[in-house]
Design goal:
This is TIGR03083 family protein. The chain is mostly helical. 56% of the residues lie in helices and 3% in strands. The protein has a single domain, classed as Four Helix Bundle (Hemerythrin (Met), subunit A) (Up-down Bundle).
Length: 211
């Protein structure tokens, strides 16, 4: 599955399930303290909303950062960056309207689909990346925080097969079908959302620094 396909699938299902949450569910705390469900959802939307500006900007000549390297533990995960990330999500949560999420993400996917093969972009952190690799990082955001949101609202995980393949390939170099156990449980273990099994090192886990 391509990153664009996975992005489209995972964003659409998140928008669908979120449209059915009650006001009480939106106010619940999440494991991503201090964010509520509404604030974490707003964080995900913000993480996707960088795309149009990146596509409007001039493309770099060479891509020098992979999807896995994007999650390296540098200044983007510093205490100051975390504070800014938290505040940004809280600000966006105040005007959040979940009803536009599916249309918003479908529009992003359509715009990315119109880009030529090998399109490169520069992230807000200054990384030069292939658009496909950056889309893979957006699938990580959708999939991992999708688990956080599902747990907070007491729903089963909705991880889509296409997103599972993209994220597990990034973490283990192999698609979900070649890995043991349910994909959502493996993703939970690999990202510290469940006790880590001894098999993760044997499977060749590539750790990611996540917000």
């Amino acid at each position: 599955m391509t990153a664009l396909h996975a992005f489209r699938d995972e964003a659409d299902v998140l928008g669908h399930v979120a449209s059915r949450w009650t006001e009480e569910q939106w106010t619940r705390p999440t494991r991503c303290a201090p964010w509520s469900v509404r604030e974490l959802f707003a964080h995900v939307r913000v993480a996707l909303a960088w795309l149009p500006g990146m596509l409007d900007a001039p493309a770099p000549a060479v891509a020098d950062i992979s999807a896995a390297a994007y999650y390296r533990p540098d200044h983007r995960f510093s205490p100051a960056a975390d504070v800014a990330r938290i505040r940004r999500a809280q600000e966006h949560a105040r005007g959040l309207d979940v009803r536009d999420f599916r249309g918003f993400t479908a529009g992003l996917a359509d715009r990315c689909a119109a880009e030529p093969p090998g399109r490169m972009v520069r992230t807000r952190h200054g990384d030069a990346m292939l658009l496909d690799d950056f889309l893979a990082t957006r699938v990580v955001e959708l999939a991992v925080h999708g688990l956080d949101l599902a747990d907070a609202v007491d729903q089963p995980a909705w991880l889509t097969p296409s997103a599972a393949d993209v994220v597990l390939r990034l973490l283990f170099g192999r698609p979900a079908a070649e890995l043991p156990g349910p994909p959502d449980q493996l993703l939970r273990q690999a990202t510290g959302r469940a006790p880590r099994g001894t098999e993760l090192d044997r499977l060749g886990l590539t750790p990611l620094t996540l917000s």
